[in-house]
Specification:
Number of strands: 6
Distance between the termini: 38 Å
Number of helices: 3
Strand order of the largest sheet: 2-1-6-5-4-3
Strand content: over 45%
Structural class: alpha+beta
């Protein structure tokens, strides 16, 4: 059984770890059933089925995610806003190197047993510096 996130910061770390090892099911375990994923402007995916489709394409890149600096967390009760700068290095289907990055803004919720899940995933707030 996969580890559950005991804090908003750990939730982000688990996302990077599971993406890095190609664990799509493990990634999906980090989302609430009716979560929303906003992968790019004008695109909103709702629910695990739609999110799974988008993340399976992402996983095909063999992504390695790193976070830059400290993760910022603002918590009110059982809801938190998590912001971090990230970079991703991967490999396209043709074997060429791909990279991406940005500043994400995610809304996460703590459940009764203490674990955190993603409610809103918005990875593209602004491009990462440099």
């Amino acid at each position: 059984m996969n580890e559950t996130a005991t804090s908003p910061t750990r939730l982000m770390e688990l996302f990077a770890e599971r993406a890095g090892r190609g664990d799509l099911d493990g990634l999906m375990d980090l989302y609430e059933t009716d979560a929303v994923f906003h992968p790019q402007p004008g695109v909103q995916l709702t629910g695990k089925d739609q999110i799974r489709g988008a993340l399976s394409e992402f996983m095909a890149l063999a992504p390695q995610i790193t976070f830059l600096g400290e993760t910022e967390v603002v918590t009110v009760g059982d809801i938190a806003l998590v912001a971090n700068e990230w970079r991703m290095a991967g490999v396209a289907p043709d074997g060429s190197a791909v990279g991406d990055g940005g500043r994400s803004a995610d809304v996460v919720r703590r459940h009764a047993d203490g674990h955190w899940l993603v409610v809103i995933d918005q990875p593209r707030g602004e491009p990462a510096p440099g």
